[in-house]
Amino acid sequence: MKHALALLAFLHPLPAAAVTASAALTGQHAYYTFSLTKLRTHDITGATGAMSFDVVDGCTGWATTQHMTMIIRGVDGSLNKSVSDYITWESKDGKTLTFTSRESDNDGPEQIDDAGSATHNPDGSGLVTYTTPAHTAYRLPAGTLFPMQHTEALLAAGDDGKNFIAPLLFDGTDSTGAQATFVAVLKHHAAEKTAWPALDKIPSTDVDIGFYARKSDDENPDFRSSMRYFEDGVADKLVMDFGDFVMTGKLVRLTIPPSPCAH
After folding, report:
1. Which of 51, 63, 170, 221 is the most buried (most CB within 10 A)?
2. Domain count, the chain
3. In this structure, is residue 75 part of a structural domain?
4. pTM value?
5. 135: containing domain
6. What's the confidence (pLDDT) of residue 160?
7. Angstrom distances, CA of residue 183 to CA of 98, 125, 130, 132
């Protein structure tokens, strides 16, 4: 769930210094509603959800906040409500990331799943130090990207006409360090009229992303998503595949504030 928008180095991953969040990315407030579109299990009979995604341009870095609510109906009619929050600060020079991921179930007390900070060396290697789980640290392999770098690399792949990229990603949503991802670049769109005038002059790229445990031989992703990404970092036409079920997200509200930073 937390990977929904936490979205890459190419077949031979780029060093971190070669992919930094560019001035093309923008601050945003986006709100999505989700509906169930496919079931692969008899244990679930329905699901619905909503997600807000906020990016604040802090001039030297990006502050992101993702808040998601999902309600799943079991075969016995019971409802399970989960609420998750994912908060990061990523410096624009690609050197540091701080992160907090927390969740609550059925309006119970909120629990922090993962929290800490990560640093990059020039080649994209680095170190993650977790405060939750406590006393946990991992080395990041060379070429690992942080989330906004990940978005930047994805968009660059669409611009360059690449069919796929396969980077390592660290976004703070997992307590085992960097993950493997495989991104299929499906189509690159020239600017066209959309439901959102602020996006009408911005090219976009359709992508399909699989997230994998880095040391696993399983060819099936732990989580899979697809979307259209505009070159300013706004996403629409979301599809999230959780394995047992698939949900489709619709962008229903979008605000893009003016940049507070001098260029």
Report:
1. 170
2. 1
3. yes
4. 0.86
5. 16-255
6. 85
7. 24, 21, 27, 29
